[in-house]
């Protein structure tokens, strides 16, 4: 099967058009998001059996994650078909369909979900008519996570036809060979500025899988609130807004497990030494003084002991190999104006800048001792690049030009330029988000490989359960395609015009799946429609 597919692609190209039997070129855009790496299509329409069955193969074919994924996508694909199918059964009618089975072959039984897991897949959709050697819808993947990505693509090929009341695949036969451009494709959520209920976080994770995003960066605590249970220091979550706005250890484990079944890693963040005023509500000794509450008191061993306790407890929850330690926006005024901290610094002949470095490096050592690679916001790299552990992943946010500098010094980098990929910036239009390029300014191939990907950030000061999804979507999808699809297929004016058409369609697909994605082209993101009209024209 794979050999046949390679031969087909040698005879085609990644963004093909189809020449019909009448000799006319069908250049209508392919309504898939994100755009696959390579694909060919035809001019046939196939019907899909609402009783579509799963046939598995390979060492990983028996995966529980795969079975859950198939059941989930079958519900999505046949959402409008249940009543029609039941009525036909009641009448004793039996229809004939072109596609009755979905065969999924997963080569590996390893379900470990880490950075760089193989998400590649091939997808074949063709009618069994005696001429096709494929004969059925078939997915081949090396891992179950590649199979999940293929299921998403297959679901987007399936369209409910209201005339025939059946699910159909247009432009068949389809041959798709796909894999992501970047291994890290992230979305940050912020549950300190506004608490998000567990079900809302799950809805966000589910919607991430539709756009093939694969890392949820959970900025769980900050100066405003500390909602997470930490058994080693049980008073820390006294810093939650209320006793009802908290996450137990079991809640966090449930979120991580839910995400794994969607192929999404969860990277937690504990932002130190700044952004930590809420910690002192439960443990006031962590404050330099009652009137000067952050950064954490660098002069006390308690501060690093608490960090060690938090990370020890979190390591039991978050298996992902990256852990975010923050390190941004550290105003050290409290250290230089609080007498006992000032004396501690003088005794060690340290400046406040030295103390900032000392704290970040110590926190990194704690994370590394627990088999994590530390991620830090770019200020740490800007301030003391030679002191950071070589395992550090530099997280860009302030502006352009950071990743080129970081990778030139051998560090890995995550792109999140606030001017283009901060979703709380409501005046950034979709095309600016779409055209942002993580490898801008990096021409050396070995350095390009150090940019592990990018992340859109949904900071929560002005977003909560009432509007978080329509602030995330559809602009997060624009970044998702940049991170998944080939650069040459998503760059340039013509590709932008095609992308807009597809993004309008994808936004409506999200709406049909219950995701409150806002109109694409409104001046301010998440604003409602300006007048009556079709979802596909907003």
From TrEMBL:
Active site per database record: 329
Ranges for domain Beta-hexosaminidase eukaryotic type N-terminal: 32-157
Enzyme class at the top of the EC tree: hydrolase
Catalysed transformations (reactions): Hydrolysis of terminal non-reducing N-acetyl-D-hexosamine residues in N-acetyl-beta-D-hexosaminides
Superkingdom assignment: Eukaryota
Signal peptide bounds: 1-22
Keyword Amino-acid biosynthesis: no
Database matches in Pfam families: Glyco_hydro_20, Glycohydro_20b2
UniProt record similarity statement: Belongs to the glycosyl hydrolase 20 family.
InterPro entries found in the cross-reference section: Beta_hexosaminidase_sua/sub, GH, Glyco_hydro_20_cat, Hex-like_dom2, HEX_eukaryotic_N
The protein's Enzyme Commission number: 3.2.1.52
Keywords assigned by UniProt, alphabetized: Glycoprotein, Glycosidase, Hydrolase, Signal
Presence of keyword Hydrolase: yes
A GO MF term: beta-N-acetylhexosaminidase activity
Domain Glycoside hydrolase family 20 catalytic stretches: 182-486
Organism: Pyrus ussuriensis x Pyrus communis
Protein name: Beta-hexosaminidase
GO CC annotation terms, alphabetical: membrane
Gene Ontology BP, a term: carbohydrate metabolic process
């Amino acid at each position: 099967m794979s050999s046949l597919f390679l031969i087909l692609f040698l005879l085609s190209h990644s963004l093909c058009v189809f020449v019909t039997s009448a000799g006319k070129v069908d250049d209508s855009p392919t309504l898939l998001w994100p755009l696959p790496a390579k694909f060919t299509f035809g001019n046939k329409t196939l019907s899909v059996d609402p009783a579509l069955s799963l046939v598995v193969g390979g060492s990983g074919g028996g995966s529980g994650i795969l079975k859950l994924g198939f059941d989930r996508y079958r519900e999505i694909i046949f959402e409008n078909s249940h009543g029609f199918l039941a009525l036909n059964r009641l009448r004793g009618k039996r229809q004939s369909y072109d596609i009755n089975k979905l065969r999924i072959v997963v080569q590996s039984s390893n379900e470990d979900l880490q950075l760089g897991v193989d998400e590649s897949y091939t997808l074949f959709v063709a009618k069994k008519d005696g001429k096709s050697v494929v004969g059925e819808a078939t997915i081949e993947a090396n891992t179950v996570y590649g199979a999940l990505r293929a299921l998403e693509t297959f679901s987007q090929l399936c369209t409910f036809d209201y005339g025939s009341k059946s699910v159909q695949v247009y432009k068949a036969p389809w041959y798709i060979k796909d894999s992501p451009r970047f291994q890290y494709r992230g979305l940050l959520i912020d549950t300190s500025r506004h608490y998000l209920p567990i079900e809302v976080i799950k809805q966000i994770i589910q919607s991430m899988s539709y756009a093939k995003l694969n890392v949820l960066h959970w900025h769980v605590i900050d100066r405003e609130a500390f909602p997470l249970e930490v058994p080693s220091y049980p008073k820390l979550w006294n810093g939650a807004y209320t006793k009802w706005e908290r996450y137990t250890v079991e809640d966090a484990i449930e979120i991580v497990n839910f995400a794994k079944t969607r192929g999404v890693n969860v990277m937690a963040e504990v932002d130190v030494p700044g952004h930590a005023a809420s910690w002192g509500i439960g443990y006031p000794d962590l404050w330099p003084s009652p009137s000067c509450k952050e950064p954490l008191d660098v002069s006390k061993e308690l501060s690093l002991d608490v960090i060690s306790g938090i990370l020890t407890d979190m390591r039991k929850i978050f298996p992902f190999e990256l852990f975010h330690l923050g390190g941004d926006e550290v105003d050290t005024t409290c250290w230089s104006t609080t007498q006992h901290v000032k004396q501690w610094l003088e005794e060690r002949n340290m400046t406040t800048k030295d103390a900032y470095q000392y704290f970040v490096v110590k926190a990194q050592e704690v994370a590394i001792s627990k088999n994590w690679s530390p991620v830090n916001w770019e200020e740490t790299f800007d301030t003391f690049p030679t002191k950071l552990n070589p395992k550090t992943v530099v997280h860009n946010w302030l502006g352009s030009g950071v990743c080129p500098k970081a990778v030139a010094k051998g560090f890995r980098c995550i792109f999140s330029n606030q001017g283009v990929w901060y979703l709380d910036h409501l005046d950034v239009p979709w095309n600016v988000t779409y055209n942002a390029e993580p490898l801008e300014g990096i021409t050396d191939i070995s350095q390009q490989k150090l940019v592990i990907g990018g992340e859109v950030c949904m900071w929560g000061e002005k977003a909560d359960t009432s509007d978080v999804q329509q602030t995330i979507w559809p602009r997060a999808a624009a970044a998702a395609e940049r991170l998944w699809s080939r650069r040459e297929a998503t760059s340039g004016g013509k590709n932008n015009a095609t992308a807009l058409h597809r993004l309008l369609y994808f936004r409506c697909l999200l709406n049909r799946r219950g995701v409150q994605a806002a109109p694409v082209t409104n001046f301010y993101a998440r604003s409602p429609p300006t007048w009556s009209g079709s979802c596909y024209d907003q």
